[in-house]
Design a protein that fits this description.
Elements lengths: L2 E5 L2 E4 L4 E8 L7 E7 L6 E6 L6 E3 L7 E6 L4 E6 L8 E8 L15 E2 L3 E6 L1
Parallel strand pairs: 2-11
Antiparallel strand pairs: 1-3, 3-8, 4-5, 4-9, 5-6, 7-8, 9-10, 9-11
Length: 126
């Protein structure tokens, strides 16, 4: 049984930083691309960042490039999202997800992600 458990969300001031973690279990972690998505109530969930199984390929949505960094530790079955220079528009529920289909070249489409965590809330005060 695949489980993804996010942590690290919270309240931060504009310009601050947070580091999200997602611990995975029940899967061969390195054979999955891992992605971060976010959702604001009333809006569709959107792609944030993704990383290949090896960690060698990453993609980001344009609005977070240069501020967010996705990484993974395959020995710990954990993926991270370091978020710096946070803005009020970054506030959302953040979800990690696992994609077994595109672990070499990760996908930015949530349709390709088979497993999802429960989410962690990020709040950015202005």
């Amino acid at each position: 049984q695949v489980q993804l458990v996010e942590s690290g969300g919270g309240l931060v001031q504009t310009g601050g930083s947070l580091r999200l973690s997602c611990a995975a279990s029940g899967l061969t972690f390195s054979r999955y691309a891992m992605g971060w998505f976010r959702q604001v109530p009333g809006k569709e969930r959107e792609f944030v960042a993704t990383i290949s199984g090896s960690g060698g390929v990453t993609y980001y949505r344009d609005s977070v490039k240069g501020r967010f960094t996705i990484s993974r530790d395959n020995a710990k079955n954990t993926v991270y999202l370091q978020m710096n220079s946070l803005k009020p528009e970054d506030a959302a529920e953040y979800y990690c997800a696992a994609d077994p289909h595109n672990f070499r070249i990760p996908s930015v489409s949530e349709r390709d992600y088979d497993y999802w965590g429960q989410g962690t809330q990020v709040t950015v005060s202005s």
